[in-house]
Every structure is written in structure tokens, then in C-alpha cells.
Amino acid sequence: MPSYDYPFNERIRTLLRLEDLFTKVLHNFEGGHEFHHHTALLSIFQILDVIDRAELKADLLQELDRQKIGMNSLLGNPSIAEDVLRQMLSDIEQTSLALRNNSTKLGQTLRDNDWLMSIKQRAGIPGGVCEFDLPSYHYWLGLSDERRKSDMHAWLTPLMPIYDALRIILHILRGSGATTKLVAVNGTFQQMLGGTKPAQMLRIEVDETLACFPEVSANKYAINIRFNRLESTERPRQCDLDVNFTLTLCNL
Q: Where does the pLDDT of residue 83 fall: very low under 50, low under 70, confident under 90, or very high at 90 and above?
């Protein structure tokens, strides 16, 4: 069933962007063609731009520590699957340790690589990584896929604790909150929000047989959802049918 996540704050927005970029990197890393690895490297450069915030590491560690404290308090609770809980605690411990052991700025080892940064600089120019612009990069792309994978593995390794941390946090976030079955009458839905603890993200799921997708505008007071159709590649049009969907308001 297709799902759509909508973040309510910049912190969750950053995690979702990083998750999307890491997913693309890891998918293309497994490919054997030079175009796969070129695309993966471009996504790594985008990851560097996103994580170029001094507080991201501290934010990740703070949230992991907060989740660890909360989960430790659940140990011994008969309604909780203790083996699953202990596995999650172990994952949090290992990820926190890997982040803390990295004493440099996130991604600094890649920024210190002058060759990679020369490619990154040219990658921001349309068509800027042609062979006549970067012959060394063209040569690298022509090496064996085993060699390219070995190099990319070395570049990815310092970044993986970030991915592990955001994967844990988003897994917990998506698993929180109660899911409600709703209907968007004539493709539109509105809900007022309340409560002392505002949601950090909403999650919408739509049956895959429905040829429509949601567009969301929301703030801490209200949610507005409009379901659209993409009948052509020119412009989406609003769905004029009643749409059944599920809504989950997520909060850490």
C-alpha cells in the first residue's frame, strides 16, 4: 500500500531527505554499471550538503539517548516483547557509540578529499562532469566495478552511522500514533489538531488500486489534504471521487 510522509518541522524534514538520499546511494551502489556509481556519488554529494549542520550529530545523539531512556523503563513490562525491545536497545547503543567515536565533523573525511571535492564542484554545473572536464573521473568510472565499489565503500563507511541513527529514529516515529480510517469527500479532507503534544509527522496510506495521490498542507492547528490524479504528465487534477485512506499522526 503506497504511503506518504509529511513532516511538521525542519528536524524531521531533514531526516526524511537524508533517508531518501541514502536509499538512492545504497540502491545504486549495488549496481555494476558506471552510471549507477555516478548516480550514487552525486547522491553522496547531496548528503554532504544536507549534513553540513553542526547540530545534526548532537540532535541524533540526543534523540537516541532519549529513546534509550524511555525503552529501558519498559523492560520487564509483560505487554512488551522483551526480545524485540532488547534488540532495539542494542541497535541504539551501537549506533550511538559509532557516532560518538567520530570526533570530526560529519562527512569531514570526504570533504578533505580534494579529488572528490573537485568532482562535487563540477557536479553543480549542468553537464560539468564530462570527460573533457574531469578526465581523472572518466578514468575512474572506466575501472572495474569491484574497484569502484571498494572506493565507494570507503567513502560511505564514515557516513553510515548517520543512516543507522536516522533509520532507527524514523522507524520509531512511524510506529507511533494511532491509525485512523478516513474518507476524503470529493477528494478533500480537513482535520483540526489539538492536544498538548503536537504531531511531528503525518503518514497517509492509500490503496494501490486508487489512481490518486495526496497533497498536504498542514501546521500545528490543522491538516488539509487534497487527493489528485495524474492523468497526463502536464498537470495533476483534483480527484472528484470519495477517497478512502488511513491517517497516522506520529510523534516521538
A: confident
Q: How far is CA 7 from CA 11, 16, 70, 88, in A?
A: 8, 8, 23, 24
Nearest-10 crossing angle of helices 160-174, 55-72: 50
E strands, the chain, in order:
3-7, 179-184, 188-192, 201-206, 213-218, 222-229, 237-238, 243-250
Which one-letter DSSP state was computed for residue 233?
A: S
Kindly tell me the burial class for residue 205, based on how many C-beta atoms sit within 10 Å of its own C-beta (0-12, 13-18, 19 or more): middle
Whole-number Å distance between alpha carbons of 90 and 106:
23
pLDDT in tens, 1-52: 788 999 998 999 999 999 999 999 999 999 889 999 999 999 999 999 999 8
- Looking at domain 9-171, what is its CATH homologous superfamily? YacF-like (1.10.3900.10)
Question: Rounded distance, CA 20 to CA 22, Å?
Answer: 6
Q: Where are the domains of the chain?
A: 9-171, 176-250
Fold adopted by 176-250: YacF-like (2.60.440)
182: β partners: 245
CA gap 243, 62 in Å, rounded: 39
User: Can you give the pLDDT at residue 95?
Assistant: 94
Q: Are 250 and 202 a contacting pair, CB within 8 Å?
A: yes
C-alpha cell at 113: 578529499
